[in-house]
Amino acid sequence: MATLMEQKCPCCGGAVRFDTGSQKLKCPYCDTEFDIEAMPQGMDNAGGSTVEQIEWNSDNNEWAAGETDGMKVYGCNSCGGEIVADETTGASSCPYCGNPVVMKGQFEGALRPNLVIPFKYDKKAAKEALKKHIATKKFVPKAFKDENHLDEIKGVYVPHWLFTCDAFAEIRSVAEKLRRWEDKNYRYTEVSEFDVFRSGNLSFDNVPVDGSTKMPDDLMEAIEPFNINDAVDFNTAYLAGYLADKYDVGVEESMNRANERIRQSAIDAFEETVVGYDSITTTGANMTVMNGTYKYALYPVWILKTSWNGKDYIFAMNGQTGKFVGDIPTDTALIKKLGLLIGTGVGAAAYGLLWLISLF
């Protein structure tokens, strides 16, 4: 679900927007700027291993009275997503699949976010990042560079559950040391195995779990990490001019994913303390988690869509750091040409060039 918020300028009545440069609200009509804190909330609606059961405590809040007034729900008939938009929005499209959305009714329910990481890169920066991304990639068809066009670009706050806890973990592993030698007749390899045990206390802060099924997981993970130190207390003023996707993966469902991320992080941390071996394999991990709490936060993402040769391409940019990712087509004619060169005996140099294709 996504929310499009609109706030009115107290000076001229125009719709204000969050300005990434000044990190303030700014009216595009009279150029008046407002500090986020100075904008009253009442104005926001003018627009083998085990993990023991974790008791997670919530730091989340409900929406204040009147905060959701004027917010309408729109539904996407294509992907099933829901968008919450200001009642002044006459028409919109799904930020993920691009299909038109239709009015469904009044917005209600859902938790109010605790934190938000404001956008630091604007739409212009996202467009420039797309051009640079395409221009710097090798083996892209020239026609794609010349003919593809930007169909849609939207700034979306993607929901995340953030889990914080203390943990006591016990990790059992098998470590191996190899010794190799040879004589005139044979080559020998001696494998020595050692049982390794590690235990200790660890703390985890704000382990993120994506709360939207509509945001492709590979894109979301590819533009991580986000710096949670830049997060601020949620205020609807930060949403001005952007969409805010409402979580459709509840916190209960996300807890299992959080537990697994915490478990794997504990294993990785203990394995780093095991040195002097050629390999290490974890055989068991037992963990007790305590003092667990969770929060609901919004992360800024630019979603861009282009089309070429009858196919759609989706890109994503981290709205905080500017990290940009996305798939682009490959010049298959060039690849075939390189393959032919290899087959006719050009040799290792061409083979190396073909291998490099997989890196782009």
Explain this structure.
This protein has helices at residues 123-135, 142-147, 217-222, 251-271, 332-343, 348-357; strands spanning 2-4, 7-8, 15-19, 24-26, 33-34, 50-51, 56-58, 71-76, 82-86, 101-106, 115-116, 149-182, 187-210, 232-233, 243-245, 279-308, 311-318, 324-326. It has 360 residues and is α+β, with helices and mostly antiparallel strands. It starts with a strand and ends with a helix.
Give the SSE layout.
Layout: E1 2-4, E2 7-8, E3 15-19, E4 24-26, E5 33-34, E6 50-51, E7 56-58, E8 71-76, E9 82-86, E10 101-106, E11 115-116, H1 123-135, H2 142-147, E12 149-182, E13 187-210, H3 217-222, E14 232-233, E15 243-245, H4 251-271, E16 279-308, E17 311-318, E18 324-326, H5 332-343, H6 348-357
Parallel strand pairs: 1-9, 6-16, 7-16, 11-16, 12-15
Antiparallel strand pairs: 1-15, 2-3, 3-4, 4-5, 8-9, 8-10, 11-14, 12-13, 12-16, 16-17, 17-18
Overall, the morphology is: globular
Distance between the termini: 33 Å
Beta-strand level of the residues, as a percent range? 35-45%
Structural class: alpha+beta
Task: State Rg.
Answer: 26 Å
> How much helical structure, as a percent, in the residues?
10-25%
Count of domains: 2
Largest sheet: 14 strands, mixed
Question: What is the count of DSSP helices, taking H or I runs of 4+ residues?
Answer: 6
Secondary-structure element series: EEEEEEEEEEEHHEEHEEHEEEHH
| Subunit organisation of the chains | single chain
Unreliable residue stretches: 1-5, 40-47, 342-360
Average pLDDT taken over every residue: 76
Q: How many DSSP E strands?
A: 18
